[in-house]
Amino acid sequence: MDVAEALGVDESMLWPKAMRAVVKTGPDREVVSVYPYRSACPTSVWAELAHSTERDMILAGYTNYFLWTSLPAFRATLRDRAAQGCRIRFLLGDPSGAVTRQREEVEDVPLTVSTRVRMTLAELEKLGASSGVEARFSSGLDAAAHVGLSVFRFDDQMMVTPHLARLVGHDSPLLHLRRAQDDGVFDRFAQSTEELWERGLPV
CA-CA distance, 155 to 56, in Å (whole number)? Predict the structure, then answer.
């Protein structure tokens, strides 16, 4: 640092490789954390994101069921956020759709995809229409894309899970993103999710 000051130049000019190793400067600066398993991300991270969202929360996992079982008082959190003016949307897979049935065969687990979707639908019903929380099923044409990628947006932060082969969501990787630029990784996922929502069908 003293050398850079003495020469009147930025540290990145003197040690570009070292600075790139420490400070993210490209599109990857939007990556906050990477977890090899979604279940490896602390519940406290999810809870903080949900509690702090002020404008836009879109939960576009195919089932979203783990949010209800993992986050304390999640229903109360949603009510509070909605009451404060936050737009909250759930994008789900159709529990009786063909893609859901196919995915159940692939995963071959006792807690089936359709059961997990219905758990979320039951929780949304408990919230009631007056809560202001919106919900849609992804369209039949989009379901195959939706089932393979879960996107959870909390204002300018996002959790993304690409589902691997036969693995269920908690065993698949997770990316924690924070928006830092136009048309970056965050915006690409956000735009795709908005397109799925726009083509979605009423629950």
Answer: 5
